[in-house]
Amino acid sequence: MQGPATIKILILDDDTFMLKLLTRMLAKLGYSAVTTCDNGSDALRKIDQIDTRPELILLDLNMPDMDGIEFVRYLVDRDYRGKLILVSGEDERMLRTAEKLVQAHKIPMLGYLHKPVDPDKLSEILQKWTESIAASPLPVSKAYSAADIQSAITHQELVNYYQPKVSIVSGEVIGVETLVRWHHPQDGVITPNRFIQVAEENNLIDDLTRSVLTQAIIQAGKWHQEGQTLRVSINVTMDNLASLDFQDMVVNLVNENNLPPQKIVIEITESQVMGPDARVPLEILTRLRLKRFHLSIDDFGTGHSSLAQLRDIPFNELKIDQGFVHRAWQDDTLRAIYDASLAMGKQLGMDIVAEGVEDRNDWDLLRQTGCDMAQGNFISEPLLPADLPNWQKTWHQRILDESLVSGQ
Ligand code: C2E
Ligand code: MG
Ligand code: MG
Fold first, then answer.
1. Which of 106, 134, 162 is where one domain is finished?
2. I want to staple 281 with a disulfide (CB 3.0 to 4.6 A). Which of 186, 198, 241, 292 is the partner?
3. Read out DSSP for 136-178?
4. Are 265 and 178 part of one and the same domain?
5. Distance 172 CA to ligand 1 centre (A)
6. 160: Cβ below 6 Å to ligand 1?
7. Cα distance between residue 121 and residue 114, in whole Å
8. Are strands 34-37 and 9-12 parallel, antiparallel or unpaired?
């Protein structure tokens, strides 16, 4: 079992005196594998490397460049699996709100500490944590290398799953979102958070997207032939839009499969940094839109989907990030962000999709507020195409049995 001396801890605080103080407090408690950073960028570099990736981060909320909340968003992008303790001089209410935001992003919080930090409170939080580790050893998730991912693409181990998007008014299945999974020969089904970023950083994202797009458009063609009026969404990052070849690839695939372009939705998330020349992505997206493909802005409300994108790109659809949908019915902060995103999208004439609809309460909020479409495990998990017909039957029955839409 891991002892305190081997648990990797990172402290991030712009105040170097605070860094020293916390390091000393931790040392007294037996935690000696401690690194410190006085800015978010350095900390992210440590998190990106396996040998320096911490299991616990003590995070200051108030920092001049990248503040604590922004830093948390980057942790989410990196699929950070460790724990977090917030440290701040802000009042109780502010800390509680920050804690809720962190929890909405599903980053496990151990608690928060007020400045000046009380060593006993720190000790208490850490003790609770180490006791829980001792009770249930954490599974270590394996990191995959660029070579592993390259091989997965070559050996066609990437498999598309499809998650239904339904109309909130009628319950009708409007479309499906393509979500790639890796059918790993030893490790089983691996979700994209564990390999997309590595692919992006190692110039493999174009190959990966080509594989996903090809499968998805062939599948969409089959559904179209069978008379299923499904729109198929595909996730694309800004990195994919760096070369004009992307557009030709999509247009050719759609033509080869006799598919009307309206059946394809390109969901866009911005990747880490937008290249210096934003004209190429803009040109590709505008031309796709002119050809009647649908464009969707994904994860709206998070750092990577910005208002500037809304202004510059002719989107048809806005997807409110799951972090602001699930539990928005009972949490004022989430609700405020949800309401604002919905109102903005409506004002701009876009279809609004709420992601991460997990339960009946979430569903009812969407009904009350006039959201257009829902996606989430309450409706269905991502499915293999063979499982779609059965799910559709069950869903139509559920609409009736559970009175999911008005007038049923
Ligand atoms: P996304 O596009 O926002 O996709 C929604 C994610 O939410 C999916 O995670 C989906 O499985 C998950 N989800 C759906 N319903 C629920 C729910 O009720 N509760 C919760 N907590 N989660 C739900 P997944 O499949 O792990 O994908 C994660 C992200 O990876 C996607 O986020 C997307 O940005 C990216 N991704 C997936 N496939 C591709 C791809 O082919 N290419 C690229 N570039 N990115 C992809
Ligand atoms: Mg998406
Ligand atoms: Mg999303």
1. 134
2. 241
3. SPPPPPPPPPHHHHHHHHHTT-EEEEEEEEEETTT--EEEEEE
4. yes
5. 21
6. no
7. 9
8. parallel
Cβ of 325 closer than 6 Å to ligand 1, yes or no, is no
Q: Which residue has the tokens 């992006």?
A: 200
Say what the pLDDT of residue 4 is.
80
pLDDT, one tens digit per residue, over 380-396 is 999 999 999 999 999 99
Could you tell me if 390 and 325 lie in one domain? yes
Best of 179, 180, 239 to mutate for ligand 1, by most ligand atoms within 8 A of CB? Answer: 179
Spatial separation of the C-alpha atoms in residues 375 and 170, rounded to whole Å:
14
Q: How far, in Å, from the CA of 208 to the mean position of ligand 3?
A: 18
The range of the structural domain enclosing residue 322 comes to: 146-401
Which residue's entry shows tokens 């919905």?
A: 342
Nearest ligand for residue 305 CA: 3
Q: What is the pTM of this model?
A: 0.74
Q: Check if the beta carbon of residue 250 is closer than 8 Å to that of residue 280.
A: no
CATH number at residue 359: 3.20.20.450
Interval between CA 121 and ligand 2 midpoint (Å): 40
Neighbours of ion ligand 2 (CB under 5 A): 235, 267, 298
Q: Which atom of ligand 1 lies closest to the CA of 382?
A: 11
Query: 97 and 40 share a domain?
Result: yes
CA of 100 to the centre of ligand 3 (A): 19
Query: Where among 134, 167, 191 does a domain terminate?
Result: 134
Quote the number of domains for the chain.
2
State whether residue 256 is helix, strand or coil. Answer: helix
Residue 19's domain is classified under what CATH number?
3.40.50.2300
Residues of the chain with pLDDT under 50: 1, 138, 272-273
Whether residues 189 and 124 fall in one domain: no
Residue with CA closest to ligand 1 atom 8: 179
Quick check: CB of 243 below 6 Å from ligand 1? no
Sheet containing 83-88: give its strands across.
34-37, 9-12, 56-60, 83-88, 109-114
Atom of ligand 1 nearest to the CA of 378: 18
Give the pLDDT of residue 1.
46
